[in-house]
Amino acid sequence: MSTFIKDYIERETISRRNFLLATAAGMGAMAAPFAFGGGAARAAIADPAIAWSYRDRASAYWNSIVSGGETFVESLGKPKDSLVSLINEGSSEKSLADIKAFLAKTSGKCAIACDANDSPNARPVVEAVRDAGAYISTIWNKTDDLHPWDIGDNYVSHMTWSDEKPAEQTARILFEAMGGKGGVVHLGGIAANNPAIERLNGLKNALKDFPNIELLDAQPADWDTTKGTELMASFLTRFGDKITGVHCANDNIAYGVIEALRAEGIEDMPIVAYDGNPEAVKLVMDGKLLATVFTNPHWGGGITAALAYYAATGAFKPSEEPKEHREFYGPTILITKKDAADFKAKYLDSVPAYNWKDFWGPSNGQIKYK
């Protein structure tokens, strides 16, 4: 096993354990639901508590999201640990329960940034926040029929990333490296996640122009390194040397794929990934990954918290904003070997300073539905 991936997996295990302990300690007194009623936006909240609800901090992606949230709260003159972490560990039930408990503990005087874990969970989450008179901004996962303007000012905004086109770009890079022929496997995220669906669709779009490339199989690996290793090992057992390229839905999965391939003595398989994590960028620079895609999670994590916070304080009224400010795409940057070093210097060696009141500066326009 390579050193950095071995270290990554060990950090993931330790971080997951520590955060589970912290969550248990911090949320233990918050288990009882609270009846709020009403549903209308309350008057401006002078000093709202701030929380981020997310999967876990073990991955570099989510660590960067929460780091962005911490940077935002520090810009308010608060210590970064005043940002409350509501860690759902991939459970939509826990996500909703923890948010309800936080609403109860703060009597609804709060602002929440949230990834609902899967799309159907977004509606009960935002309705609970609305009923409490609190404020929430979401990222990544919601159903297409759920819109902030239908819920009201309490549902401030939703940001996602237009993953289909970047995933198609990575697939084309992969197919060119395969010589335009052979067999490809796709290791995806959680099946109900919007980004998992879009990234697989991007692969399928690219396949239309490459008739000599066969999609051997596409299965979910739940964004997880260990599951990526297990799934890739099963693909190798089933398909053997018919596999000549691998399309991964995120960087974490790609790390697992690399380990499964190395276990079989395979060092030169073309692989593409997604997220632009520091370890993945290094792999791109070293030629171990062909490409990854950066979604600027630090900015995304900070601006999502900022939107909920400033709406809660009355700094702006969400319903007075155009729809492209209520539902919008975040930024994406394709990273290949030719530009990886420049990207690393700009975004990873030092984190850019962001104006957390410039809510939509780097965004990419209103979300479009098919």
UniProtKB/TrEMBL annotation:
Cellular localisation: Cell envelope
Keyword Transmembrane listed: no
Domain Periplasmic binding protein: 50-314
GO molecular function: carbohydrate binding
Listed GO CC annotations: cell envelope
Signal in keyword set: yes
InterPro entries noted in UniProt: Peripla_BP_I (IPR028082), SBP_2_dom (IPR025997), TAT_signal (IPR006311)
Pfam families: Peripla_BP_4
Keywords carried by this UniProt record: Signal
Primary residence: other
Family: Belongs to the bacterial solute-binding protein 2 family.
Name of this chain's protein: Periplasmic binding protein domain-containing protein
Organism: Mesorhizobium plurifarium
